[in-house]
């Protein structure tokens, strides 16, 4: 990360270069005159007369050695607005220069708890870059110094945001790794290393999975020379034995489509078909780092969907962990097979309060919602409302889509209990979710988030600069904080 944040104890000095000051929405300078000289204030006031005041950030070059940056704050801010402001500030920073910036917290003239905390959080999320495989890293280290006596984030707030950032960045790192590096064997090793955060890790390899009868999951990975795994991550933040919150993620490390082969164009993007699992991993790391007062479990199925003489064929029938049989009509509808076994296992073993699964499951959800909303499917209205509200607050939005028993007939198989794709046509995301719902056996409150349009961004978004987004880590953390801690 090219940003280094320093919280200084000293007060601001007027002669400092790259001074960042906050004003009201109209760029009224009365409040900031104590932080710059009268000559500088007069010069800025003159420039403001011809500036575009609709912009949120204005940069004034007062001399070759002095730059002042004014950031306007509108009324009725939400926390996501402040984060976006921090992200926009990062975009305005000159990325090619190694420079120091000084944010004057005393100039914040509104009452908003943790304003600077949210501002820095947005700045840091936007600053993420995945440069691991660049032979020459040109990124300059930029220092952002937080100075002043008021409005500084408390130590507790700093630790909370740091944990959330580390969880989000870890998820982004996992999604960004190429398939030849982050195959299931390597992924399982990395998850085992998370024990050092306080998580309890259990890794089920192929031998254990065969013994358990997870043939749906194993069928997806049988064409790969790599192993297939189910990994559980437990965080016990409460001393009692209360039921945990459960999060399940699809971890298809690379998806060729199998014998139902994908087109070559854009197949390289299928390294991010494990983004659902990355979100679960990032969330669990965040909960452990911030010592969340909750019991939670993360479960991820890790496979690689390849073509070989041993790969699963269209027409195969497998018996899932639940005992239900599945006819494989399309080997590219593989994520639901991984989740089917993981969902039933999670419900049976952990008996959770709820289960939320995340997966880059269908292209159909992108047709429906684009890259603005994740698709939400659920058997529980209360859980749906909680997820929707949490998403609105952190600007990781979801939109509830329908489930209905009438869709079941599209997934009924003539030769098995269920088939893995709807060949009649239409409702691709709903029928996929309808398939998953069949593997929730004990009426546990359950929600499925189809994040195919949200996990990766070609062009960047408000809080990311393109590539892996880490979508879902902040959303689910907000859900837990708001409703279960």
At the fourth level of CATH, the homologous superfamily of the largest domain is Zn peptidases
Helix-and-strand structural type: alpha/beta
User: How many discrete structural domains?
Assistant: 2
Backbone shape: elongated
Number of beta-strand segments? 19
Helix content: 25-40%
Radius of gyration: 25 Å
Query: CATH first level of the largest domain: which class?
Result: Alpha Beta
Jot down its keywords:
Aminopeptidase; 485 residues; 19 strands; eight-stranded mixed sheet; 21% strand; six-stranded mixed sheet; alpha/beta
Question: How would you describe this protein?
Answer:
The chain has 13 helices and 19 strands. The model has no long low-confidence stretch (mean pLDDT 94). With 485 residues, the protein is of the alpha/beta class. It folds into 2 domains: 3-153, Leucine Aminopeptidase, subunit E, domain 1, CATH 3.40.220.10; 161-483, Zn peptidases (Aminopeptidase). The longest helix has 22 residues, at 155-176. Helix 4 packs antiparallel against helix 8 (275-289), helix 7 (215-221) packs antiparallel against helix 9 (335-350) and helix 11 (381-394) crosses helix 13.
Brief synopsis:
32% of the residues lie in helices and 21% in strands. It has 485 residues and is α/β, with parallel strands linked by helices. Strand 11 (317-319) and strand 12 form a beta hairpin.
